[in-house]
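Input for the complex:
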Amino acid sequence: MPMIEVQNLTKSYHDRVAVEGISFTVQEGEILGFLGPNGAGKSTTMKMLTGFLPPSAGTAKIAGFDVFEKPLESKRRIGYLPEMPPLYLEMTVRGYLAFVARIKGVTSAKLKNEVERVAAATAITDQLPRLIAQLSKGYRQRVGLAQALLNDPALLILDEPTEGLDPRQRRDILELIKGLAGKHTVVLSTHILADVKATCQSALIIHRGKIRVHDSIDNLTQGGQKSLEDVFLEATSDEVESAVAAASAA
Amino acid sequence: MRNALAIARKELSIYFTTPWAWVVFTAMAVLSSFFFIQNLGQFAQVQEMAKAMTWGRVMQMYPQAEAFKNLTDGVLVPLVNVLLVIMLFMAPFLSMRLFAEEKKQRTMELLLTTPVRTSEVVIGKYLGGLGVVTATLLVTMIYPVILAIFGASESGTALEWSTVLLGYGALWLFGATCIGIGMLMSSLTESQMLAAVLTFAVLLPWLFLQSVGMRAEEPYRSAINYISFSTQLENMMKGVLDLKAIVFFATIIIFALFATHRAVESQRWT
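Predicted:
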């Protein structure tokens, strides 16, 4: 059974369509790079997968559970890092992680170990007693990631997890994500194509609410002959065409 | 329920690790002590007068002096009446952040993507708010305690505890209702300031609806009087247990919780 099964998923707002009838599946253990220009519908799709936004049409299933019909079952299997890490600035890192662990159903007996496990995995152990408000952007991002890892979810949905990190931190986080492959399924959105090449087995490029490309990295780059950048630019090229059209019309 | 308690615990920890709760406690303590001292002074004055010219003559001059025969009716019942109004001003500050802050900080996304029901979020947040309101009231419990230790009056036992506790019960019921309405307002906006103003705009007229009712004709007068907070609280603040009032406020609280739930759910659809 695939970990994610999306069929005809659509999100429309009263004046525009953000995601237009997309369908794709992600197998268990796969790391998928979720790419697309700003405003393409990446975050909207992720919000629908996590059950935060109800879709206008279509279905999404996580490990066989419909995110809309069986929200608690599907949410139990997801660790989610939104674009903006959802942090309570007034809390300490430890207090925050303990709170999230509790609402994710970690039992009191395992709570301390679980918090320390994710803190070690994201290298924030020495930050545990600090207030989140005092942390730098990179640390906040890592606390957000630590939160997503709590209770060891089968599926991780990470919206730009390397945003705001310095090169070393970025490498560490990507190593961490790579280490999750096999046992965990990861959907990772990013603008940094090198990150995708380094960590993902496959990539999905979304543009104007529609899927343009969904294939393994090897197939997309034709075994390394083509750069991922070219693939991305080709898949999202009508932006250039329409810009030219708009310019000539003016 | 476990999730609701975890959320209540988080709310309380935020109230107590930020200046929020402490500022409200301080304001409550300063304002209430001002009125307590004033009531106490008045009480002492009447008692002195009675000593000088007997109760009979004092009551001939001021019929309302009856209340000053004992500390409960002379000091504490008027204090509870003042505390009710102070509570009206404090509660919006405590309830305004409950949902507005989560929405502004984008942490709502966390609560709604973890395996927690929306009803658990609402109940947890309400319990957190209720906890801090209860703590605010406990701050003012110092006055009956002071009177019980140092007070003495003509009627023997200094305080009639059943009256005092029923008065505080009325305050608690009112505080619980304020938090419920405040939470509903907070769930409607991202702005904490707006949430506080809206809460205040609902609570203040509701508390004093009675004065509107007085000028109305029957049957409106009875209807308005019935739904007015002050009429409902009247008996309990005098020390008479009133189940009708408990049911009345419990109904408002349940309605507020339900409406908050609908508001949070419906906002995901826009």
